[in-house]
């Protein structure tokens, strides 16, 4: 029932599985084995939703929008057990039919039983072959076979081709469907990597290490907020800003879009070590509260604000020495960790997000003191959200702002060299190449003063 509850919340209430599932697992007091099963069932179903819906439609002889919502949710879970897990066919069908009864959908049990028996007649590979038969467009075939929306496949291919690495597309799509290992970050001044876990250090971040258990919250340091769950790519995004140059006591730092607070916590710890002060701004009050909680274990000298980042130049005339702009985006770089994300956004969302990103970047540059550093970061490799935004804003700045060779900066920070494509000094991380989320990182600076808006 835990997996079904989460699937329902995701499909009907736009919930986030990675936030909801751990709570439901603890509430249900599941054993380690039960929790692992529920996690794979939930995440695996959500990752491959597009493929499974196509399989279900073929097996049912009707489109999924003509199937009752309750029946469709249990069919999705049953299909993942049959095609994506090692559950025996008779057990998967019987358990799913029983689940249909348990939720009060008795009239659908015969239908669910019949559809799943048809699903069980083929392996996933055989279903993919049947569904892609006759499809000439390679992107359409890839989209169905790897359970990605077609527009996402095209965007990822374009992003890789910018680097001359288009041949890596299949490896990237496969990596998106592999559950990532949980990475932790030891916040400077509050925690260090435990000696017995030094062999589990992350490949690139000097502060990261792999969680030794499936439930990092069981670690007291995590519970106290001294160690945080954070993807290695996010760690590198924050460290590119904080360690690009020596910190001067009294510097003012800004995290412009700080929610939910992971990067803000790392920046605050880095700032405190150098005598700098951090302002964490967030436009959504509920997310601002998450930022406050994330920063609670840290020292004083941190301010949390609620406000629209696009007006930062109007609300803070003093300016900032370092600014992190982790801009709202499609989230295509975190498809491993947010299994439902690929089905939430559409290609039509990109222009609006790109416009918002450009507005935020322009405002951040306005609030940056001459000679200061700004990190423009997106958890998306989509070219329209990354270099295109930077190029557009720099053109509008008329030469006042310029990019900084971010690849060279990170080369002095990382524990082992990053295999990067040629992006004129920008950094694009990839799950299949670096084992991180697909973070884009570009440092910028301003060379002369301009009156703040």
Task: Characterise this structure.
The protein is α/β, with parallel strands linked by helices. 48% of the residues lie in helices and 12% in strands. The strands form two sheets. Strands 4, 5, 6, 7, 8, 9, 10 and 11 form an eight-stranded mixed beta sheet that branches. Strands 2-1-3 form a three-stranded antiparallel beta sheet. Helix 1 runs antiparallel to helix 2 (17-27) and helix 2 (17-27) packs antiparallel against helix 3. It is globular. The protein starts with a helix and ends in a 7-residue tail after the last strand. The model has no long low-confidence stretch (mean pLDDT 94).
Per CATH, which architecture of the largest domain? 3-Layer(aba) Sandwich
Quick one: biggest sheet? 8 strands, mixed
The class by helix and strand makeup works out as: alpha/beta
Q: What is the gyration radius calculated from CA atoms?
A: 23 Å
Count the E strands: 11
CATH topology of the largest domain: Rossmann fold
User: What is the class of the largest domain in the CATH system?
Assistant: Alpha Beta
N→C terminal distance = 53 Å
Work out the helicity level. Answer: 40-55%
User: What's the CATH H-level homologous superfamily of the largest domain?
Assistant: Vaccinia Virus protein VP39
Question: How many domain units?
Answer: 2
Task: Output the number of helix runs.
Answer: 21
